[in-house]
Design brief:
It contains nine helices and nine strands. Helix 3 links the parallel strand 1 and strand 2. The two termini are 12 Å apart. Helix 2 packs across helix 4 and helix 3 packs parallel to helix 7. By secondary structure, it is an alpha/beta fold. The protein has a six-stranded parallel sheet with strand order 3-2-1-4-5-6, with helices on both faces. A three-stranded antiparallel sheet has the order 8-7-9. Helices cover 34% and strands 13% of the residues.
């Protein structure tokens, strides 16, 4: 069983040094970054909250989105700990009903460019995001990541040992509430497939509440302070959870084959 719970690709990837943003042809962005860091004057984290503005998909894929205002208690908590919160994204995103010198909506400031976003993620303490494009950038730079409002466990999940995630609960017609990863694994595949467009009549995705986001951020921040050396907290999803549960499911499927059992390497 043990070998099914290990990720040899991950071990190889995290042994490679993360990339750095080249200074070549980026003089203005580097100057903007230095100026912004003078303004920040503290440790900072990057925050990205996907909403319908960028892709105009409020009807088709609303379950991928979240309300930035539900993050306000978590933002306040981080600021109280001396951490600046920098929200990245585009100016099409929903405005946050919160103002503070230590909360910066980058796209609404004098500083904005894709290169600056890269620099910010490269140098942040950790990244708080969703299952959306900037998450991949944070993974590329090997940053500790807290993924909130996860609508699927199947992709863009907690990847490294210092990543954590919090799933949205589901309410599914004829099934009821699905509020754990174990229950998710037992659902039909259509509720896992990221390409499948699910109707609001069939399933309701329950967005993480302000309290849930705050508590998850507190737990993650405490783990960050302890350099992710303590035991995992119940309710927080980690790559260990995913490997454990998915390996059991894969092994169960593997053993269900009889004479036509595929080669072990196919299952790997």
């Amino acid at each position: 069983m043990r070998k099914y719970q290990e990720d040899l690709i991950l071990k190889s990837l995290i042994s490679i040094n993360p990339p750095t943003v080249s200074a070549k042809n980026n003089d203005k962005e580097l100057a903007d970054f230095k100026e912004l860091m003078i303004q920040v004057d503290s440790k900072y984290v990057c925050l990205h909250v996907r909403d319908s503005g960028y892709f105009n998909d409020s009807i088709k894929r609303s379950y991928r989105n979240a309300d930035i205002n539900n993050y306000i208690p978590a933002i306040q908590m981080l600021i109280e700990q001396g951490i600046t919160v920098i929200r990245i994204g585009s100016n099409s995103m929903q405005k946050c009903n919160f103002t503070n010198d230590k909360y910066i909506e980058l796209y609404d400031s004098n500083f904005q460019s894709e290169t600056l976003d890269l620099l910010l993620i490269q140098h942040c303490e950790f990244f708080i995001g969703m299952q959306s494009g900037p998450l991949d950038v944070a993974q590329l730079f090997q940053k500790p990541i807290l993924i909130l409002n996860m609508y699927t466990w199947f992709f863009a999940t907690p990847f490294k040992p210092n990543d954590r995630g919090l799933l949205k609960n589901l309410i599914i017609k004829d099934i009821g509430e699905v509020n754990s990863l174990t229950k998710r694994f037992n659902l039909p595949y259509k509720f896992t497939d990221s390409v499948e467009i699910l109707s609001n009549e069939e399933v309701t995705f329950v967005e993480n509440s302000p309290f849930e986001i705050l508590e998850a951020t507190k737990l993650f921040y405490n783990e960050y302070l302890l350099e992710f050396s303590n035991e995992l907290n119940e309710g927080m999803l980690s790559n260990r959870d995913l490997y454990r549960l998915s390996s059991k499911k894969i092994l169960k499927n593997f053993l269900s084959f009889d004479n036509i059992r595929p080669h072990e390497n196919e299952i790997n």
